[in-house]
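INFO  loader      accepted 1 record
INFO  loader      residues=49
INFO  predictor   begin
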Amino acid sequence: MATLMDKLRGYLRSPQGQQTIEKAKRMASDPQNQEKARRFLDKLRTKRH
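INFO  predictor   done
INFO  writer      dumping tokens
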């Protein structure tokens, strides 16, 4: 039986997984998305304290 990690690794090696990785890289390099992520993480940090 394949574990969740095995399934994830298999997906990431597939052509569809590679497309997902490339899309995520493009989104991560967008300054607007970086700012959204920063605000989200800041919000999480302030809720913890």
